[in-house]
Amino acid sequence: MKQLIDLSTWNRREHFTFFSGFEEPFWGVVTDVDATRALQRARDLGCSFFQLYLHCTLTAVNQVENLRYRIEEGQVVCYNQIHASPTLGRPDHTFGFGFVPYHADLDTFGRGLEAETAAVQASTGLRLGPETGRPDVIHFSAMPWLSFTGLTHARSFSHPDSIPKISVGRLRSENGRQLMPVAVNVHHGLADGYHVGLFVEALQQALNQ
After folding, report:
1. Residue range 53-96, pLDDT digits in tens
2. pLDDT at 157
3. Torsion sign over Cα 10, 188, 4, 108
4. How far apart are CA 4 and CA 74, in angstroms?
5. Nearest alpha carbon to residue 77 among 190, 180, 173, 186
6. What is the Cα 181 distance to its own chain's centre?
7. How far apart are alpha carbons 13 and 205 in whole angstroms?
8. How many CB atoms lie within 10 A of CB 70?
9. Beta bridge partners of 151
10. Minimal CA–CA distance to 156: which of 13, 24, 3?
11. Other CB atoms closer than 10 Å to residue 93's CB: what's the count?
12. Which stretches of 74-120 are assigned E, i.e. beta strand?
């Protein structure tokens, strides 16, 4: 489900028009979140840490309206719910794109993630298709090998794109806490620093539960 945004009355109309004319309308930031409690919670629940923080990420994204905006045929729409299109790894160190539907229930979400991970590992190539190409997703990647402080993405400027890209890196210990870097890249015509700040705050709250 999605709703069309009336550009004639939208308070971001000029921002949208201005940044949509850029060759690179995306901007990004890297920040840390405290994953100490989330890591322990995953152990207590017997689920993977990846499952937990991906679920927390989607929970937070769905709380921020601007991260549910997408540009479709020159119009802005707002989706009621956003899912995940993550990169999922294989034993041969390649990856495939997946589609994991969001569910508020962690166990239900986990079953979908488990099934999609198995499908990716049983396949080859990128797995491009209608599901992984859906607009009502975030593009998500995890790099547990690196605790990064900056991140860029491969982008085709000729391909219209307004999907947020969220990446996380390796945990690092600091003053008894487990910190995790999170990179967020969004279309500037749809979201500013304020909205990314709302997302990071909501993500931290979800991780602390």
Report:
1. 999 999 999 999 999 999 999 999 999 999 999 999 999 999 99
2. 83
3. negative
4. 11
5. 190
6. 13
7. 31
8. 23
9. none
10. 24
11. 6
12. 75-79, 83-89, 95-97
pLDDT, position 158: 83
Q: Within its chain, how far is the Cα of 132 from the centroid?
A: 13
- Express each pLDDT in 177-208 by its tens digit: 999 999 999 999 999 999 999 999 999 999 99
pLDDT tens-digit map of 1-30 = 999 999 999 999 999 999 999 999 999 999
**Closest C-alpha to 30, from 205, 179, 140, 150:** 150
123 — phi, psi (to 5°)? Answer: -120, 180
99, 54 contact by CB (below 8 A): no
Q: Is 69 helix (H, G, I), strand (E, B) or coil?
A: strand
For residues 50 and 192, the answer to whether their CB atoms sit within 8 Å is no
- Residue 16 DSSP SS3: helix
Tokens at 171, concatenated: 């945990």
Burial of 147 (0-12, 13-18, 19+ CB in 10 A): middle
Which tokens sit at 25? 């309308």
148 token code pair: 């990064």
Q: Are strands 172-174 and 95-97 parallel, antiparallel or unpaired?
A: unpaired
pTM: 0.97
